[in-house]
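Researcher: Structure for this, please.
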Amino acid sequence: MTQILLGQSYFLRFDPKLWEAMKPYPPLGTLYAASALRERGYDVGLFDAMLAESEEEWAETLDQHQPRFAVLFEDNFNYLSKMCLLRMREAAFTMIQMARQRGCTVILCGADATDHASDYLAQGADFILVGEGEETLIELLDCLTEKSDRALDEILGLVTKMGDASSVPSGGQIFASWTRSPSQLGTWWMSPVIGKFGKIGTDIFR
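Model: Predicted structure, token format:
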């Protein structure tokens, strides 16, 4: 059982032109968040939708890890994630619902979730992270796991539902350090890619 499962909802297969071009990118933003959580002592699993067949692979990963927290942390380094494509939003909604059906607390961070927080909350998300998200995610999980006694309404950059309205504390936080090496983080991503497609050129990290 994994405490936290991180994923992202950009499915290259759902974008036919880019699927044909076949230039997948590692989800660096998601990987940085996963690395930060591991350094904080959390047990973290990772799901990368980039080369997945469909949302069903997310469901299978949820069943494998059985996490308490399901976090869709979009890769804001990738311009494709910032395009807020409707098909990817639909995928995220499906992934939220799959996680909720399994009893997970669902957390979102990404450009589309920030711009349309009420829609994501209506689909079952418990929390939306505004801004870069890494520091806010750590503070939120510390609060929810009782690692800290900080109140939810004291956490910057957090959107959650209060009754019939969304509660939006003041703006998001800036990640304190970008010194973690993408070459090390790449080991999270390359194993499933190599397993699916064989040898992949290292230029995908450039």
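Researcher: Any notable elements?
Model: Strands lie at 4-8, 44-48, 69-73, 105-109, 127-129, 158-162, 165-167. The longest strand covers residues 4-8.
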